[in-house]
Specification:
The chain is of the alpha/beta class. Helix content is about 35%, strand content about 20%. The protein has 18 helices and 17 strands. Bound molecules: adenosine-5'-diphosphate.
Length: about 475
């Protein structure tokens, strides 16, 4: 089968969060099952784009309302990622370092989607499935079915994976002329609450809808930033497939970003050596447990709790625990976390920013990972933590509910029910008791490391969905 994944992110070419990890791994595993999966992303000005070699495969021009944009499609030479990676280069729109956050994001991603379909049309490509990811590619199913210029793709099956329903990419109908010509009788497919809503349009138009965990599939019908009723209506064509993790990239026995390698047998010594390096770099006490947080500092992750959690851990459990935070996002939270490091120099530190290499060391060198998320469609951090022998402390929600079982119920994590400072502190207290019991702590860490969250079986589930679409 020929499957086109179209996305705003793909690791290692362009990453903001879990979307990149998924799109950078699933196609590799689909190819290993004997299929041809490719990925198409915009050509951002990232280190990857500058350093890798690409070959040009197509050039064209599209209209976005009254504007015209030239585009080049390039393919990464040698398919070093385990799949063909295409970039659509549109210098005026994407030749910038960041992936999102510009005032013209609507124009950028609409133009990207039109260029993708123009390329398929001009080259007469007939994929077996077009698989879209999140709202940045949500207009594609509509355009394939309703825009006159893309008629040859009308019958091509489409799938959408929702990685996060909070973000929907909505914009005003005043910009509807950006889309290539279609019969306006079909405008309703684009509309939600009086605006064009790319995520809603995709939910309505795709043949198959998936999200990244079974629990999130249920939760979305109650909490999806206004799309609950639509998701309830489309429940029949929806499925929840838990993400995998790339166990080749995320393997403490071979991870080149670590100070020392280890497997489940050597969990104690291996982690101790990485912990030493982490503590040395950030002025923490290697004899005490290290609690960490990695991620976007946003409301969905419960990030605004972190300053108060830090303050209370550092006073109520003074001299008993370290806390380390790696992340960026809300500037008030960033500022607060930074300020705390001036008062608590001994057992606390924070790194504001994005740092892939440091993230690997933090997973390996920490004892516990905090995830007090309000919304967590799947969450990858807890799976990386388990794989690296770090005990996840999670709020029971979405994919966290599906992947972390509390140690009191025979699992390898610590779970709480509320996104609240009290619940996190209660879990920290349980974690300290576990830490004090060497044998139990090692058994829990080893157990977590042995859970199989690899992509092999997950890719087979996606394949089954694609095959059903072709029937
Ligand atoms: P989301 O996609 O909602 O941000 P996920 O748990 O699905 O959350 O994926 C987060 C991914 O981003 C993980 O690979 C995590 O290690 C990585 N990550 C998040 N913030 C940072 C950061 N500041 N530095 C390095 N890696 C980060």
């Amino acid at each position: 089968m020929e499957i086109y994944h179209i996305s705003a992110e793909c690791f290692p070419a362009a990453k903001v969060g879990g979307l990149a990890d998924v799109v950078g791994a699933l196609p590799k595993y689909l190819n290993r099952l004997g299929h041809s999966a490719r990925v198409v992303i915009p050509g951002y000005d990232t280190k990857f784009t500058r350093e890798r070699e690409f070959e040009e495969v197509f050039s064209g021009e599209i209209k976005l309302g009254d504007l015209r944009f030239r585009y080049d499609v390039v393919k990464e030479s040698g398919d070093s990622l385990g799949f063909a990676l295409y970039q659509i280069r549109m210098p005026q729109l994407f030749d910038r370092p960041e992936i999102y956050g510009y005032d013209d994001d609507t124009e950028r991603f609409t133009a990207f989607q039109i260029a993708f379909l123009d390329w398929l049309t001009e080259t007469g490509a007939h994929p077996d499935v077009v698989h879209c990811h999140d709202h940045h590619t949500g207009l594609i199913p509509f355009m394939m079915q309703h825009c006159f210029g893309f008629g040859h793709l009308k019958m091509t099956p489409t799938m959408l994976t929702i990685h996060n329903a909070q973000y929907q990419g909505g914009f005003s109908f005043e910009k509807v002329h950006y889309l290539p010509e279609f019969d306006t009788v079909n405008s309703g497919y684009l509309e939600w609450n009086g605006a064009i809503n790319p995520l809603a349009a995709a939910i309505k138009c795709v043949a198959k809808l998936s999200t990244v965990s079974p629990s999130y599939l249920e939760e979305m019908t109650h909490h999806a930033n206004g799309l609950e009723n639509l998701l309830r209506f489309e429940r029949g064509k929806s499925v929840g497939i838990l993400n995998g993790i790339d166990t080749e990239l995320w393997n403490p026995a071979t991870d080149t970003m670590l100070t020392s390698h280890y497997d489940a047998e050597r969990v104690r010594s291996g982690k101790a050596s990485n912990k030493k390096a982490l503590c040395k770099e950030f002025g923490l006490d290697e004899n005490l447990p290290v609690f960490s947080f990695i991620g976007r500092l946003v409301y969905e992750k419960g990030a605004e709790l972190l300053p108060e959690v830090a303050r209370r851990v550092l006073t109520e459990f003074k001299g008993k625990a370290n806390l380390f935070i790696l992340g960026s996002g809300d500037s008030a939270v960033e500022e607060h976390l930074r300020a705390l490091s001036h008062f608590h120099r001994e057992y606390y530190n924070v790194y504001i920013g994005y740092n892939e290499q440091l993230a690997h060391l933090v997973y390996a060198g920490s004892d516990f990972l905090l995830m007090p998320s309000r919304v967590e469609p799947c969450g990858l951090n807890q799976m990386y933590a388990l794989r690296y022998g770090t005990v996840p402390i999670v709020r029971r929600t979405g994919g966290l509910r599906d992947t972390v079982v509390d140690m009191g119920d025979g699992g390898f994590g610590i779970c709480h029910d509320q996104t609240s400072v009290e619940d996190v502190l209660w879990s920290v207290n349980r974690a300290l008791q576990l830490f004090a019991d060497d044998a139990s702590f090692d058994a829990i860490r080893r157990g977590g490391m042995q859970i199989d969250h690899s992509w092999n079986s997950v890719a087979a589930q996606y394949l089954e969905e694609y095959l059903n679409l072709k029937k």
